[in-house]
Amino acid sequence: MHVFTTLAIITQTKPLHIVGEPQDFGGAVALAKESHWGGFTWSPSEFVADDGSTADGLNLGAVVADHEEGVLFIMYVRCAHHLKCAVSSTMLISSTDDGITWSRPINISRQVGTDAFAPGPGYGIQKRHEPRKGRLIVCGHGMLLADGVFCLLSDDHGKTWFNGGVMKSIPYKQKKAAGDFNPDECQPYELPDGSVVVNARNQNFYHCHCRIVMQSFDGGETFPIENLYFDKSLIDPAVAAGAVLKNQVVFFTNPASGSKRINLTLRWSYNNGTTWPESLLIWPGPSGYSVMAKLDNDIEDNNYVYILFEKGQVDTTESISFVKVQLYTPVSGQL
């Protein structure tokens, strides 16, 4: 039996798409589901990648939509932990019919290298503003000793990929200890000024039990150290969190605790993440990874954000829950 963890939820046009993958070291399959009804009903699971019983098969991944070409991509890694295998591979599958069918996986390691790179979890982005409007950006973290945040970029609608901005761990390629600088799983999003923000897991609790935030002003090619900060208002137990920009508001989800994966909370910021004045508790119990999505081109669902998260009564991975959150009150129209 496969126990799945949250991977990504994303929109192309109307449908919502969910992609899941096994927990670390589990059976190596990835599944996809879609909803044409705002998340009230979902299609049967479709297995889009299967590595059989491989001990260190596919692991983690990100979904990215090319809105200009109408293509969905899933990027994932094989042999992330070097268990009974020695070379990591970055894999890519695509769909040109809104997730109804998927291509066979292709290996893009000749383009981006064979260092262990785990995309996501969550979604990649296509830049809507200059600089580099139309660029696809997928960010993730390194594995083994060479940890940190790394981004892959494509300027030709996913045909070819190249290495973009990095934020390496310290000490790099050395064993980490508690308190070391070790940015990990991350979620990128684009601000209205065209800059790319990456909100990252603070794996070894460097400086605080909170999130690491970095920003790029050149389309994800670099992340200058002077644009990195630690958001102490976003307390975090070291976990993959969700973030999305909608209607000029940044939304963020994570287990709001400095030590335990509990209290899945939605926060929002009116000033691009500088402050987070308000919050909504989604689930008080065990809660783990979370991802977010939005529907911008649909009148009915434009007033919602969507949250997919690991939820349980005793353990965080007992189930995966989908939540549709209404953003505006019917009477006042206020967030």
Automatic annotation (TrEMBL):
Localisation: Cell membrane; Cytoplasmic vesicle; Lysosome lumen; Lysosome membrane
Enzyme Commission number:
3.2.1.18
* Entry annotated with the keyword Plastid: no
GO CC terms in record: cytoplasmic vesicle; lysosomal lumen; lysosomal membrane; plasma membrane
What Pfam family does this protein match (any one)? Answer: BNR_2
Q: How does it sit in the membrane?
A: Peripheral membrane protein
Kindly report the protein's main subcellular placement as a broad class.
Answer: membrane
Q: Which CDD domains match?
A: Sialidase_non-viral (cd15482)
Picking any one GO molecular function of the record gives: exo-alpha-sialidase activity
Say which domain of life the source belongs to: Eukaryota
Q: Which InterPro entries match?
A: Sialidase, Sialidase_fam, Sialidase_sf
GO terms for biological process?
A: ganglioside catabolic process; oligosaccharide catabolic process
* Domain Sialidase, chain residue ranges per copy: 38-294
Keywords per UniProt:
Carbohydrate metabolism, Cell membrane, Cytoplasmic vesicle, Glycoprotein, Glycosidase, Hydrolase, Lipid degradation, Lipid metabolism, Lysosome, Membrane, Phosphoprotein, Repeat, Signal
The record lists the catalysed reaction(s) as: Hydrolysis of alpha-(2->3)-, alpha-(2->6)-, alpha-(2->8)- glycosidic linkages of terminal sialic acid residues in oligosaccharides, glycoproteins, glycolipids, colominic acid and synthetic substrates
Keyword Glycoprotein annotated: yes
Role description: Catalyzes the removal of sialic acid (N-acetylneuraminic acid) moieties from glycoproteins and glycolipids. To be active, it is strictly dependent on its presence in the multienzyme complex. Appears to have a preference for alpha 2-3 and alpha 2-6 sialyl linkage.
Family from the record: Belongs to the glycosyl hydrolase 33 family.
Subunit record text: Interacts with cathepsin A (protective protein), beta-galactosidase and N-acetylgalactosamine-6-sulfate sulfatase in a multienzyme complex.
What is the name of the protein in this document?
Sialidase-1
Source organism per UniProt: Petromyzon marinus
